[in-house]
Each structure stands twice: as structure tokens, then as C-alpha cells.
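Task: sequence design from structure.
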């Protein structure tokens, strides 16, 4: 049972669960496929569709609510809120488009689109925050891989819908409402920060390279399959086979936590304690032995240790850090070193919302995204109409 408990608490298992969440979380990328259905069913003009696109972009971009709640709620609660918003927003749109509910005015439809797409921000927040906390030394690869799978989610959902082959075109909206919500609820207790070892390990590089290769292979596979389906009239059986291979590629990353849990050697105590969890102790407060706790002065160790310490083998690095801890603890005990609480986190560490708002880095990133992402969103929102104007049929296999 300890092995299974270790598997459930393995940070790579959490990462795989976050990949599955992101693989269905890119709801904004599906708008180009569902907007022609809404336009034809509700007799909207292009300006009205553009208004829905703006509401979608706002829902996809306003994530400070999810970010603020992540400081107070567990990750499963964030995922559950996002699933409810996704289901309610797009579920009601499906009821209206399919004629099961009376048509609502445009402003009400914009609110529904906003609510449904805003659920994506809860998915992104829970997945990214959990994995960044679990992999503090590998934040770049973690964020890049997760956003890569989010970018593929539109193609994944489209390929899955191609397997269903229902005559009702509005069914794609139903799938967008139900599919992501079901996946997120299924894994909402998996995606979370886990305790234990958080130091970079030698096997991390190869594991990230494996997952990144799977992401690239999945992208190439989806592009090839969709081009083939557009150029050749394939049978339903072949499309099902393509979708089964797609599911296989999505499940393949589970090999990493399985191998690390059931096949690899257990971690040594020295390696386990390289980066202990920070304790909520008051600075200046003495322990029962009369000396400062090593965790209290751990931030000073990061300041004092030479850079070459991080390049040493695990055992030697632990010895050097332990020696430095002992020296700082002894100096603090005799008053030679005065341990002070830092005023705020440094670049690369975790920030609260209020701490981030007073940093220039935050506003630089904010302005870069605000000014640079508009062109891409414009293409995504109007891709369906652009393709139709060129004589192409979006999701031709959706036609009855």
C-alpha cells in the first residue's frame, strides 16, 4: 500500500493529471468551430458574433478571481468551480442553440459565453500553481509543457467529436460543455501541491524531455490526421482508430510516475532533505535547545552559499548546506548574525497578488500580453467565418 500511496502523492502523477486538465481546458480555441453553429442557428450577423468573441476573450483573460481564490481554497475547489462555470455557461448555450430553451438577447448570450470560458482560468490556475510549487527548480519546462497541451486542446476536442458522428451540429457545444467538466472532476483530487522532495533530480531532465517529445508528437499527429480527414473520405472505423491512438498518446506520460514509484530505487534520506519544507516559525524565536531552527535561517543560506554548490553531487551538496546551516545557527545563537525577515519574495519565488502588483516585472508582462495577444485572438475568434468566406467548410464531417 505504501507504493500506491507514494504513486498518488508523486509530483509527476500530479503533473500528468495537470496535463489532462490542460488538454481539455483550451475552450477559447474551440470558438472558431462553434461560432458558425451559433451564427446559423440564431441568425446572427458578423457583428453579433464578434460581440460573443469579445465576451469569450474577456472570460478567458480575467483570471485574477481564480488567482486570488487559489490563496484561500484548495485546488480541487478551484477545479470544481471552473467545471461548474464551464458546464453552466456552455450548457445553456447548447440548450438555446438546439431549441430546447427560448432564445435570449445578445447581452445574455455574452454573459453565458463569459461564464463558460471563464471556467478555463480556474483550470489553468489550479494546474499551473500546483505544478510550479511541485517543481520550483523547473518552472519554465512545467509552464511551457502545460500551455503546449492547452494549445492542442481545441484540436483534441475536435478530433473526439469527429468520432461521434451525430447529425445535430449543436452537439459540439454540448461536448464542450460536458467533456472538459467530466475530465476535470475526475482528476480534481489529483492536481494539487504535494509535500516531500522538491529539489531538482538528475532524472528530471530526461522526464521533461520525454513529456515534451510526447507533446510534439501529439501536435504532429493531430495535424496529420486532420489534413488526412480533409483530403480523403475516411471511414468511421478509421476515424475511431485515429481517436484511440490520440487517447493513447495522452495516457503515455503516466509511464513516468509509474516508473519512478514502482521501478526506481527509493530516494536516500540525504537527497530527501535537500530542500525541507519551510516552517511557519517566527524569526528570532528560539527552539527548545536555545538555538535558531535551521528552517528560520534557510533564506540566509541561499544568500551565503556559493553558486558552485548547486553543481555538486547530491550527497556533497547536502553536506555543504548542512555545514553552512550549522555555522549560521551558531553565529545567530551568539549574536554574531542577526536573522531578519525579508520584506518580500525575490524574483522566481512565489508572490501574492498584492506583492506582484507593486513589481515592475508584473506590469511589464501585463502590458506585453495586453498589447501583443490581440492579433492572435482576432484570428482565433474569426477563423470559422474566414474559412467559410474562402469556400471552406468548417468541420465538414459535422454536416448531417
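Answer:
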Amino acid at each position: 500500500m505504501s507504493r500506491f500511496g507514494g504513486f498518488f502523492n508523486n509530483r509527476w502523477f500530479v503533473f500528468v493529471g495537470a496535463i489532462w486538465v490542460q488538454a481539455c481546458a483550451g475552450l477559447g480555441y474551440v470558438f472558431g468551430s462553434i461560432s458558425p453553429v451559433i451564427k446559423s442557428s440564431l441568425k446572427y450577423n458578423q457583428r453579433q458574433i464578434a460581440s460573443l468573441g469579445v465576451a469569450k476573450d474577456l472570460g478567458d483573460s480575467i483570471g485574477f478571481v481564480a488567482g486570488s481564490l487559489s490563496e484561500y481554497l484548495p485546488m480541487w475547489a478551484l477545479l470544481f468551480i471552473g467545471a461548474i462555470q464551464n458546464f453552466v455557461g456552455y450548457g445553456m448555450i447548447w440548450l438555446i442553440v438546439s431549441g430546447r430553451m427560448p432564445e435570449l438577447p445578445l447581452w445574455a448570450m455574452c454573459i453565458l459565453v463569459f461564464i463558460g470560458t471563464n471556467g478555463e482560468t480556474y483550470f489553468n490556475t489550479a494546474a499551473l500553481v500546483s505544478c510550479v510549487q511541485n517543481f520550483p527548480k523547473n518552472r519554465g519546462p512545467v509552464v511551457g509543457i502545460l500551455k503546449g497541451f492547452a494549445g492542442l486542446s481545441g484540436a483534441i476536442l475536435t478530433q473526439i467529436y469527429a468520432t461521434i458522428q451525430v447529425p445535430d451540429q449543436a452537439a459540439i457545444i454540448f461536448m464542450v460543455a460536458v467533456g472538459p467538466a467530466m475530465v476535470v472532476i475526475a482528476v480534481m483530487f489529483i492536481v494539487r501541491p504535494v509535500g516531500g522532495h522538491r529539489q531538482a533530480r538528475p532524472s528530471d531532465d530526461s522526464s521533461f524531455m520525454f513529456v515534451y517529445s510526447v507533446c510534439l508528437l501529439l501536435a504532429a499527429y493531430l495535424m496529420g490526421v486532420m489534413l488526412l480527414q480533409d483530403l480523403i473520405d475516411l471511414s468511421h472505423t478509421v476515424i475511431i482508430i485515429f481517436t484511440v491512438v490520440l487517447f493513447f498518446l495522452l495516457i503515455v506520460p503516466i509511464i513516468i510516475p509509474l516508473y519512478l514509484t514502482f521501478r526506481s530505487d527509493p530516494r536516500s534520506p540525504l537527497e530527501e532533505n535537500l530542500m525541507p519544507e519551510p516552517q511557519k516559525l517566527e524569526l528570532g524565536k528560539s527552539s527548545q535547545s536555545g538555538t535558531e531552527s535551521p528552517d528560520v535561517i534557510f533564506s540566509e543560506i541561499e544568500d551565503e552559499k556559493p553558486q558552485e554548490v548547486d553543481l555538486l553531487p547530491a550527497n556533497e551538496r547536502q553536506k555543504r548546506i548542512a555545514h553552512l546551516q550549522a555555522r549560521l545557527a551558531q553565529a545567530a545563537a551568539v549574536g554574531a548574525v542577526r536573522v531578519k525577515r525579508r520584506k518580500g519574495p525575490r524574483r522566481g519565488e512565489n508572490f501574492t497578488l498584492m506583492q506582484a502588483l507593486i513589481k515592475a516585472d508584473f506590469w511589464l508582462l501585463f502590458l506585453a500580453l495586453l498589447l501583443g495577444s490581440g492579433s492572435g485572438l482576432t484570428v482565433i475568434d474569426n477563423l470559422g467565418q474566414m474559412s467559410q468566406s474562402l469556400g471552406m467548410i468548417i468541420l465538414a464531417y459535422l454536416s448531417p
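The longest helix spans residues 202-231.
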